[in-house]
Design goal:
This protein has a single domain, classed as Rossmann fold. Helices cover 38% and strands 17% of the residues. It is globular. The two termini are 16 Å apart. Keywords: Kinase, Transferase. GO terms for molecular function: ATP binding; kinase activity.
Length: 231
């Protein structure tokens, strides 16, 4: 079993071998509290060392207003899945400008979650060889899936993710009991719906089992966009 560092080095080598004459758009997908943000930050840091421009953001920078997010109820799994994010803004502000035929003028946020108000952000011009890394849940929904050049899916069990999430969010969510209820009624069922509708593990270019943080397990599907370059 390879170490986390070795696994990340393997992925960096494959990711940086892509030449598109435009920015490369990478999604770090997975269930809530699977370790997506940490993984995306680690990948970005290692790529920066190779003097590649990194555009780093999260789907959490593209929330819908609180009134929309909780319109079906604070604990609603349907609400989390359908009403959590402004997916048209993700496409229009970020993914499409960096994609084929795009002008490379991108924005990394549309909404301030804390202030519950839109973000006014001046577009930036991405270098042709920039690499975009976005972490988030539901990144392979139909509205987004065709916009990614590579998708890395972080796999983790319900038990591990729930434990990590509750430890991380208990104060923010009003205590351990409130956090457990939110995970049980909102986050976990919403991800189950995502799995049923989108089969995100099946369509990903790489799967990283992240239950063991020190020794994650990397697998590359034979027909993925990474398979050609993977040794």
């Amino acid at each position: 079993m390879s170490s986390r560092s070795s696994m990340l080095d393997q992925l960096v080598a494959k990711v940086t071998s892509f030449e598109l004459a435009r920015p490369l758009r990478i999604a770090i997908d997975g269930r809530t509290a699977s370790g997506k943000t940490t993984f995306a930050d680690e990948l970005a840091q290692r790529i920066r060392i190779q003097n590649r421009e990194i555009i780093r953001t999260s789907i959490d920078e593209f929330h819908l207003p609180k009134a929309d997010r909780y319109a079906r109820g604070r604990l609603s799994a349907e609400g989390y899945y359908h009403d959590g994010y402004d997916l048209p803004a993700v496409v229009a502000f970020l993914l499409r400008p960096l994609g084929p035929g795009g002008d490379r003028l991108y924005r990394t946020a549309s909404f301030d979650l804390v202030k519950d108000q839109p973000v006014e952000q001046e577009p930036k011009l991405a270098p042709e060889d920039a690499i975009l890394i976005v972490d988030g849940t539901f990144l392979q929904r139909p509205e987004l899936v065709a916009e990614w050049d590579l998708v890395i899916f972080l796999e983790s069990s319900e038990e591990v993710s729930e434990s990590r999430g509750i430890n991380r969010d208990r104060e923010l969510l009003g205590g351990e009991d409130s956090a457990r209820r939110l995970y049980a009624e909102r986050y976990l069922p919403a991800f189950e719906q995502y799995e049923r509708l989108c089969s995100p593990k099946v369509t990903a270019d790489a799967i990283v089992n992240n239950d063991d943080f020190e020794f994650p397990i990397l697998s590359i599907p034979r027909d993925s966009r990474l398979a050609v370059n993977f040794q």
